[in-house]
Amino acid sequence: MKKVLFAVVAFTFFLAVPPTEAQAQVTFGPQVVLWDFDEFGLGARGDFELGGALEIEEGAFSALRASTNASYLFGDSQQFNGTDASWSGILINANAIVPFEIDGAVTPFAGAGINHTRFSSSVSGNGFQFGSFSGSSSGLNVLGGIEFDLGAVPAFTELQYSTSGAGNLNLSLGVMFGG
Fold it and tell me: Rounded to two decimals, what is the model's pTM?
């Protein structure tokens, strides 16, 4: 009985919702991150069009895009009197960005969103693990950047301030494929 009911609901849904052409443009690619201008990270970014999906046809928000990225931070390893201390981190961001169409080779953009950061650290020495710690924090992002062509490949650079933890300033550079 459940299968028949599911089939009737699915058939009704397909009759009630007419097919339309997909309007979302999706791009994705790798990025390099300089976290707080001190630590190196690698990650991936994906953008998709929101203006068309939300049927915003006029104004600055007609080009609105969602941008998500995740990066792994290669933290420092320090040695103190035979004791090793190391850490690493993961950054996850979800932002809304608006590109500003200008006549030129670059397209500036601005945006805002949310951030989640997760860190892990450990201390060891003389063959013993003394302790480890992991923590996370979430916050808000404010960002700006430019998009440009790197030969035949679209590229971007972005400066982002995040309020997670004590706050941090990140610089990203990457290329995008798809769309």
Answer: 0.77
